[in-house]
Amino acid sequence: MSIIEISNLRKVYKLGSVQVPVLNGVNLTINKGEMVSIMGASGSGKSTLLNIIGCLDVPTSGEYCLEGERINGLNDDALASLRASRIGFVFQNYNLLPRLNAVSNVELALLYKKSSDVRKRAMEALDAVGLGHRYSHKPMELSGGEQQRVAIARALVKNPAVLLADEPTGALDSRSSSEIMGILQKLNRDKGLTVILVTHEHDVALHTQRMISFSDGEIVNDSLTKNSMNLEHNGGQ
């Protein structure tokens, strides 16, 4: 079952009197429970597509549906509501508040939720990424990999329909990078979470099941990885 359907999506930025096309008629379907990587050189359009999927930007034309709901045409308040409830974000630079400890940083994602179990949910999210022993630690007391785990927990605590990760390993060493990708794989495998990540690292993309390559605002390759083939061979386990 598809969770994201994109048809003839175009994005043009205006720089003064000059129009700069960034996406040129993109067609893409992503199924619920997939783990997908989007690759491409700087300026290829991959981050613009991720921003549109995440309701941080709007297309110039074309169709975008999330869980069957048509997104283009929604007003700013409706887009903000979608971001708050159905989309989790993970960024390269973590975006944690330095004065707050790990559990408080995760709780920020539930700031506007009327719920009595915010602290409990935040702690469970940290447990899910292996940071149950770091609840009270502030970002400066955590390694880069641990900070990114907090960021993943913050995205996860909302129970999003889809998790979007923009260069999630870009600021990490190879060991931490592998650990973060292992966590994302586990969330995808065990919880059925749909994960879409942008990366320029081929080794990172190989952790996903499907690799999409962009060039000049167009998809030039869309193929399954060996990881996906192994999952199919093992019956999805």
Per CATH, the class reads Alpha Beta
Give the number of domains. 1
Q: How are the strands ordered across the major sheet?
A: 6-7-8-3-9-10
Number of helices: 8
What is the terminal-to-terminal distance? 19 Å
Give the name of the CATH architecture. 3-Layer(aba) Sandwich
Tell me the overall shape. Answer: globular
Strand content: 25-35%
Q: Element order, helices and strands?
A: EEEHEEHEHHHEHEHEEH
> Could you say which structural class the secondary elements and strand pairing correspond to?
alpha/beta
Unreliable stretches, pLDDT < 50, 5 or more residues? none
Radius of gyration: 18 Å
Mean pLDDT: 91
Fraction of residues in helix: 25-40%
Main β-sheet description: 6 strands, mixed
Question: How are the SSEs placed, and which strands pair?
Answer:
Elements: E1 2-15, E2 18-31, E3 35-40, H1 46-53, E4 61-66, E5 69-70, H2 76-86, E6 87-91, H3 102-107, H4 118-128, H5 144-156, E7 162-166, H6 174-191, E8 194-198, H7 202-205, E9 210-215, E10 218-224, H8 226-233
Parallel strand pairs: 3-8, 3-9, 6-7, 7-8
Antiparallel strand pairs: 1-2, 1-4, 4-5, 9-10
List keywords for this structure.
237 residues; alpha/beta; Rossmann fold; six-stranded mixed sheet; four-stranded antiparallel sheet; 8 helices; 33% helix; globular
Structure description:
With 237 residues, the chain is of the alpha/beta class. It has a single domain, classed as Rossmann fold (3-Layer(aba) Sandwich). The chain is 33% helix and 30% strand. The chain has helices spanning 46-53, 76-86, 102-107, 118-128, 144-156, 174-191, 202-205, 226-233; strands at 2-15, 18-31, 35-40, 61-66, 69-70, 87-91, 162-166, 194-198, 210-215, 218-224. Helix 5 (144-156) packs parallel to helix 6 (174-191). The protein starts with a strand and ends with a helix.
